[in-house]
Amino acid sequence: MKALGIILAGGNSSRMHELTEKRAIAAMPVGGSYRCIDFVLSNMTNSHIQTVAVLSQYNARSLNEHLNSAKWWNFGRKQGGLFLFTPTVTTNNSWWYRGTADAIWQNIDFLKKRHEPYVIIASGDCVYKLDFNKVLDYHIKKQAEITVVCAKLPEGDDINRYGVVEMDRDGRITEFEEKPMVATSDIVSAGVYVIRRRALIDLLEECNREGRYNFVTDILIRYKNMKRIYGYRMEGYWANLADVDSYFKANMDFLRKDVRDNFFHTEPGVFSKTHDLPPAKYNTGSKVTNSLVAGGCIINSTVENSVLFKKAFVGNNSVVKNCVILNGAYIGDNVHVENCIVESHETLLSGSTYIGENGVRIVTGNKNRYDMPVGEV
C-alpha cells in the first residue's frame, strides 16, 4: 500500500452523556464483541496499510488498553506498526489538541519521517467496511489533491450533525458545509480523507502559522474552490456514533440479517482484541429471540431484540427487551428492563424496573438518568 493511516480518536461528544464518562467514543462497545475503532483499524489492515497512527486525547485509558498490542490487527511487523499518540507537553508546546488539524500537526514529525506518498485520514467513531485501495485508485485517477469519502445520510439522522457536500457530475466537490441547520443535499462526509503526504505537511504548517486548527473548516472548506477536492461515494452500511440515539441504533442494526452478514460473514473480516471467555450459557428457563449474546454471558430468563456484551448476567424471571447491555452488567431476579442502555458493570437490583418510555434510557450508577429521544430501531 502506498499510504499510511491516521485515525482521529481523540474527540468527545456531550450528546453521549454518561456513556463517555468512562471512555472515548472510539472505545465504545459495538455489535456484541467489538469496539468502535476496530472497524477502521480492520479497514486499514484489510487494505494492506502497514503503518497506522492513532491520535487519542479525551478519556483515553480504555482505548489505550484496547490498543495495547498491534497483533490483533496484524500491525506488529518490522516494516510498519501501530502507533498511539497522545498530546505531549514540550518546551515548545503545552497545548492539548485544539482541533483535528492541530492533532496531526502536533505529530508532524511522524509524517516527515515516513516515506509513503499518500495519507489516509479517518475518524475512529464510525462503523463501516471500506477498501481504501479503491479510494486511493479513485484519488489518483481523478488527479485530486484531496479526496473526501462520502455516504448517504443515514435514515432518521439529523443533517446538522454532519458535513454536507455537493458534487458535480465528475465527482468534484462544489459545496461543503459543516453542520448546517438546513441542507439541499443528503450526501455527507464519512470522515475519511486521502491526500499526498507532502501536501498535508504544507497545509498543516500553514494552518499552524495562521492559528487555524480544524481540518474540515480550515482546509477542506477554506480551499474547496482553490484545490481539486473530489468526493468518493461509499456504498453499503455506514454509521457515525455521535450521540445516544445513533449509538443505540447502530447496535440495534446488528440484529438485522443484512448488517450481520456484512460484518460477521463477509470477507474481509472485522478484527478485535480477543478475550479468553467461555461460551454463553443458557440455563433452564431462558428464552432468547433475535439477540446477540457475547461470550461469558449467563442467561436465566427472557431476552428479546437485544445486544448483550461480554460477561453480562441475566437472573431468573427477568425480561430484557430492546436493550444494549454492556460488558459485565448484572441484572438480578425479577427485573424488567426495556429500551435501555445498561452501562458496563452496572447492577440492576432484583425486583427493579427500568423502562425508556420516551426513547432509550441510560442506566448507570446512582447519577441522574436520561430519557433521550430515539428514532425507529
Structural write-up:
- The chain has nine helices and 29 strands.
- It has helices at residues 37-46, 61-66, 100-105, 108-113, 132-141, 197-209, 215-221, 244-253, 257-265; strands at 3-8, 29-30, 34-35, 51-55, 81-85, 118-123, 126-128, 146-152, 163-167, 173-178, 187-196, 229-233, 238-240, 281-282, 287-289, 292-293, 298-299, 302-304, 307-308, 313-314, 319-321, 324-325, 330-331, 336-338, 340-342, 347-348, 353-355, 360-363, 371-372.
- By secondary structure, it is of the alpha/beta class.
- Residues 366-377 have low confidence and may be disordered.
- A hairpin with a 5-residue loop joins β9 (163-167) and β10.
- It has a seven-stranded mixed β-sheet with strand order 5-4-1-6-11-8-12. It has a six-stranded mixed β-sheet with strand order 16-19-22-25-28-29.
- The longest helix has 13 residues, at 197-209.
